[in-house]
Amino acid sequence: MIVAMQEKATEEQIDFVIDAMVDAGVGVHRTTGASQTILAGVGPTASVDLSKFELLPGVLHVHRISSPYKLAGRGFRPEGTVVEFRNGVKVGNERVVVMAGPCSIESHDQIFETAARVKAAGGSFLRGGAFKPRSSPYAFQGMGISGLELMREAADAHGLLVVSEVMEISQIESMLPYVDLLQVGARNMQNFNLLRELGEVRRPVMLKRGIAATIEELLLSAEYLLAGGNYDVILCERGIRTFETYTRNTMDISAIPVVKKLSHLPIVGDPSHATGRRDKVPAMARATVAAGGDGLLIEVHPNPDRALSDGAQSLFPEQFVTLMDTLRVIASAVERTI
Amino acid sequence: MIVAMQEKATEEQIDFVIDAMVDAGVGVHRTTGASQTILAGVGPTASVDLSKFELLPGVLHVHRISSPYKLAGRGFRPEGTVVEFRNGVKVGNERVVVMAGPCSIESHDQIFETAARVKAAGGSFLRGGAFKPRSSPYAFQGMGISGLELMREAADAHGLLVVSEVMEISQIESMLPYVDLLQVGARNMQNFNLLRELGEVRRPVMLKRGIAATIEELLLSAEYLLAGGNYDVILCERGIRTFETYTRNTMDISAIPVVKKLSHLPIVGDPSHATGRRDKVPAMARATVAAGGDGLLIEVHPNPDRALSDGAQSLFPEQFVTLMDTLRVIASAVERTI
Amino acid sequence: MIVAMQEKATEEQIDFVIDAMVDAGVGVHRTTGASQTILAGVGPTASVDLSKFELLPGVLHVHRISSPYKLAGRGFRPEGTVVEFRNGVKVGNERVVVMAGPCSIESHDQIFETAARVKAAGGSFLRGGAFKPRSSPYAFQGMGISGLELMREAADAHGLLVVSEVMEISQIESMLPYVDLLQVGARNMQNFNLLRELGEVRRPVMLKRGIAATIEELLLSAEYLLAGGNYDVILCERGIRTFETYTRNTMDISAIPVVKKLSHLPIVGDPSHATGRRDKVPAMARATVAAGGDGLLIEVHPNPDRALSDGAQSLFPEQFVTLMDTLRVIASAVERTI
Amino acid sequence: MIVAMQEKATEEQIDFVIDAMVDAGVGVHRTTGASQTILAGVGPTASVDLSKFELLPGVLHVHRISSPYKLAGRGFRPEGTVVEFRNGVKVGNERVVVMAGPCSIESHDQIFETAARVKAAGGSFLRGGAFKPRSSPYAFQGMGISGLELMREAADAHGLLVVSEVMEISQIESMLPYVDLLQVGARNMQNFNLLRELGEVRRPVMLKRGIAATIEELLLSAEYLLAGGNYDVILCERGIRTFETYTRNTMDISAIPVVKKLSHLPIVGDPSHATGRRDKVPAMARATVAAGGDGLLIEVHPNPDRALSDGAQSLFPEQFVTLMDTLRVIASAVERTI
Lengths: 338, 338, 338, 338
Description:
The structure is a homotetramer.
Chain A: E1 2-5, H1 11-23, E2 27-32, E3 37-42, H2 51-54, E4 59-63, E5 83-84, E6 90-91, E7 97-101, H3 108-121, E8 125-127, H4 145-157, E9 161-165, H5 169-175, E10 181-184, H6 192-200, E11 205-208, H7 215-227, E12 233-237, H8 255-262, E13 267-269, H9 271-275, H10 281-290, E14 295-299, H11 317-333
């Protein structure tokens, strides 16, 4: 940590800050400039509450120097993490992995037809929600575990993996028989109790960025998972909230190269939730791959106009096929396959 | 709902949209202008997914006309809701209610001393966290139920009510013996399962606005509680995330008069979390009362420099006393007491 | 325009609103639903100040139905605008056009070397600033017209076009001999006096989106140019301000497909200013082309480490060459060339 | 400046950074921690482009330690600036100063009636726009200099001062005979050429915060004025752009105490533009005074329903009188008068 003193800070004030740093278990190096004194603190600063120092008399600013996350940082695994699934599919490798399916599992026919379409177009994962957190209390809330059973069957019938969202600690156990990749939704990105539990589970986790979360906060949430011993973590960019309202959220494509620099974890993009509009999904899916994303999460529905939730952002199966063809060319431009 | 067609929409496109509206159970009134056709849908539109219509050919925009919330709207209770507690304290009345205490309950001495200070200065509620969701996995996580026991004792000893945060459904039952007002934190504002459970409980709930939540979304979350039959709901403004980083969040003081117009529910302000800095708390507490807030949630600690969490935003007891004196004058300006 | 009345609005309130609409020159169609009355206004509503109606008693919401822009709307030129330059280069066509060069023109050698590099790599425009608005009063402020002379010579020597920023009305006249495309910077997007003057000029204009401007506001600013008779307008996405601070701004890639739907004007991307960091520029340039952008504005400097301004976001010439090769493949995936 | 090296930075990388710092004219102090090396740069770092260092191999973060502004910083004038006008009115003193009037000057009667009302209610300044930058090209654009003449007469007739917005360098000279306080609008906050010119003028300037500007950027813009020798600068908070759309902008009340700490310049609030709605203006005006603002800028119109611009945010004269009475009580609570 670095404490920059105000230009007119007195020796007394400086001594008081130094004492406070030492009290907090931090070693202090002092640099006295012509107009300003700087105190560099070294040692176990990760657990120090820096904001306390901000308020001490004579202090201008306090900066954290070391990253607040350790295990999620690039330095921990410079070569990058590759998450491998039981059928050999890998995320974080040179192949861009596509996860597709409906917002909600609705019926046997719906999920089996979708599975066939996803597989045929080149997807690796079948996605679908069993528990739907809806912002209106009057909307469809999901099929629950029976939906997961259907999705597992449909996925197995076509050699696909299953990804689905876990919303509460109490659901984890019951989902494990059906799900290959446990998704943590944007609203739960800072549900630290849930993260801690998932850190104990030996099943890959996909952590979505919250709509008001910085990249640093996303990595700090990943740290919870890694700290628990679960290193199979995939991050997901799905749009942040900004003043622009034409799209539901603003997909932060630049988060992809930023995460690639700061962390060793793979990152995928979810253009369906980011835009909320089917007609914007292909452009943002292409941008995700072009920017270096490791995969895509896309909503596809055999009949979007009849979907019980989020139909407006689901692709028609034919649109998905066309998109996949385009993505293959873009992947080749960035030395990836799909 | 209103569907505005594009200027060049064809009769076929218009007919297709009308059919889709009728299919969705909505009655249609058509207005044909010189350059543009407008379709007004009446009937049970609250449960219709408007975004589907946005994508139909020839459609320019779709607008929801009725509020997506009903029970939380001003029209439901034009006279305003007053939440009454067992000792007669009322929130939403002419008296501005102050809730104060430490971020975390840390020890017997800490919470008893705080309670004495809060009561002496004119506070009505003792606040304190038992379960602390911390963004770093390496920080203090709270005392749990034993902390609540201490807080209950301390509150009773001084005639105060108790407010504390509930973070999970599983905690509700165990908190009821100790807590008069169950707080839902900003991160849980859209934890709809938790809200549904709290709607069933007969205990007042304070719902904090999420840092990325619009006022409409806050009211929609309140709707979950009301729809469950729990009408004792208090809203709380605690800052939203913006591009300004000097303060932790930007406290949206204008949310207070906006909520007063749109809803019948009381609203209080939390300047401690909104600013994250002790030296900004008094100014924002004063602004809250001046803008018409029904109460305040303020962090006070007998020794902020030694607090195990959020010390930098906790007031010293003497600062709290001074602030209360100032607030009394401001309250009188807006025809309130404190 | 649509006026939605509150559920409990009285007949008197409704009549008062109808009178106010008629006074404003608007024809009114009334729809009386079971619980709510809706008033649709048709006629010359573009010049009506809707916010006045919002405050009338009994009014719930007022919606603008027609776009506030006309000439910039897709309907005005469904086939799309192609801006053609004197040497035959076209923007808005199937070829993606690249504009590259230093932030500031610094010297003869700098700009001539850059021109050679830009041309060799396949660029069409040489960019460079003559007047630099710097946020610190103590920084380099640009070479002025003598810089433009140098850039014109360098561009002509290599068959390139010239794009440079105009910051004030008084500069327009003196820039015309040197510049093929007049750039309006993000800070001037709503300098309506400047826009009005540029609407009178017969020279193409590139209008950058302001960092706090919605897409609708960008199109409304373009409307000023078109209303003056200048139809050769190119839009530019260069990042918006959000809470994420790792990148200087958040590049809103989704603005590209959105503008393509709403307007007939071409849109290019500026990844250099959007990210502010050289190491993020290639990824965002690739995303721009993948998302359907009509061109790119990229900072390239023969020696970024010695640049007098914005060196950290300028590519090294070799990086630019590599990037162009990648972009060619991506362009082919979206049926474009480069 | 502080350069924090990555944990695995090599000695070569560290030496390279030290050389680059020395090249930039900065003296270097090195602190070698157990896991990380920190380089503190002292000397003339205000003019150094820190972002260049961010990109050097082995660098984790670069922090600016000293404020980028000097003259606008609190340390330059710890006692605070008081701007005194020719009739003895002072801004920044214990008296809260109120500036009120219409958005646009429209006619003799309108401005004279407003002046009488403003004076009677206790205002000190008459405000009104002569040049109106409107976002739609089809709206009323202002009366120009003849409007200023009218406003000057009206102000003199009632012993008021005049504040009006200057939008371009070319307007300054012609406005000086009529205007006591030159307002720089939010859109021009970073029009550095205009600021530089105004720095040379000997007339007080009110600088409004841009809707996407941080407090630091506001102070840096003020620095331009101060650097030119004009120390009579008043800042103005008028709302920032956030994701909340119910109010036009989100008024950042906390900017008031923040500016008071960081700078010696007075700061006033403009609740009319911040909210865009008459019914929210009183609450936000009260909050401004309660938070410690030095003044208010409020739109008042004798007949808001007939105003040619911004009628929806203008108070009726009677509302203004009532508000002023309330503000007097609030001012007393914070040891001010009005």
